[in-house]
Design goal:
The chain has a single domain, classed as Aminopeptidase. About 50% of the residues are buried. The two termini are about 30 Å apart. The protein contains eight helices and seven strands. It is α/β, with parallel strands linked by helices and about 220 residues long.
């Protein structure tokens, strides 16, 4: 458990589009106290992946797609270890707010003690090899988008593009989790869907981006 708890069911999209399963009710109850990290896999295989959703609290599509991925992975064979943070900032998701204490949290990855810095430190201390940051934004398009930086990350993004017809772009942005993690030797991409579309559609789109991102790393079969 990290920090920044909140009642995420106060977010209209979370309450409207999240399946009302006992697992999800338990999840949303627990994140009232702070963000959670779920682990999948028995430690076999050398690859460790971290998936993080909801750094921006007004992007519930990212949370919902990641919860859908959790449901997909439960009981599935994993060749490696996958860590998932479905609500990075429950307090901001509850308020449907992009900002944490008046600032964009995804420009603060290098600021010691900031929320995203703590996520970065979790990745570093757990020897994460690959990081997927999950977002929703404007002007993305109907097929979704993957941001990358390095040559390997471009190959990773191209695989997702081949499978989903999404767009890929290289756009290093100072202070983001993706760019900072990449600079620290963690292969990192951002997957993103367009906020203007109905969440029922974009949840499925982002789930596909996530699924094929993991397929490329050969930790699951699709």
């Amino acid at each position: 458990m990290l920090v920044w708890g909140g009642d995420v069911t106060k977010n209209y999209a979370i309450n409207r589009y999240m399946s009302k399963t006992s697992f999800n009710r338990d999840l949303t109850d627990k994140v009232k106290k702070g963000s959670l990290v779920y682990r999948f896999g028995n430690g076999s295989g050398k690859k460790k992946i971290l998936i993080c959703a909801g750094i921006h609290g007004d992007e519930p599509q990212s949370n919902l797609a990641t919860i859908k991925l959790i449901d997909f992975l439960r009981g599935k064979g994993i060749n490696g270890t996958i860590y998932i943070i479905p609500f990075a900032m429950p307090c901001d998701t509850a308020k449907n707010s992009r900002y944490y204490e008046g600032t964009d949290p995804n420009r603060q990855a290098m600021r010691q003690g900031s929320p995203v810095n703590k996520i970065l430190n979790f990745a570093l201390s757990n020897d994460i090899d690959y990081l997927i940051d999950v977002h929703a934004g404007a002007g993305v398009g109907g097929k979704g988008l993957v941001f990358y930086q390095t040559k390997f990350e471009k190959s990773w993004a191209n695989h997702v593009k081949m499978k989903t017809k999404c767009t890929i772009k290289s756009r290093p942005t100072k202070g983001t989790l993706r760019t900072t993690a990449s600079s620290r030797g963690i292969n990192s991409i951002t997957v993103e869907v367009d906020k203007k579309y109905n969440p029922a559609r974009t949840i499925k789109t982002e789930f596909e981006l996530l699924k094929y991102s993991l397929e490329y790393l050969m930790v699951i079969t699709v």
